[in-house]
Design brief:
The chain is mostly helical. The chain has 4 helices and no strands. It has a single domain, classed as 23S rRNA-intervening sequence (de novo design (two linked rop proteins)).
Length: 120
Amino acid sequence: MAFQFQKLEVYNDAVGLADAVYALTKRFPREKAFDLTNQLRRASLSISCNIAEGSSRGSKGFAHFLNIALGSCYECVPLLEVSKSQGYAQQDECEQLFRQIHRISARVSALKNSISTKER
């Protein structure tokens, strides 16, 4: 038996992003990149968590949590850029993650817009 939010493609995409971020950050040097690893993991995980938590709220509450999820998408971008510039991640890895983030952020925005439209 699945929760309703587990049926959302955007939720599943966000879980996939967090998995990819965890796999990437396992390779980061522990002593030099702990803060970056922790922040990137938390930001990526926050996307799916806010979709899940927000789905238990009314339309207005869900829209609020989707805004937070969207902010977490955007937070991942500079963290990945720093990871790349510090030599912890390769260009192609970051580009793949940027594409995932872009797709997820577009879907979060579309979901938020559909909820807002239903309210009117």
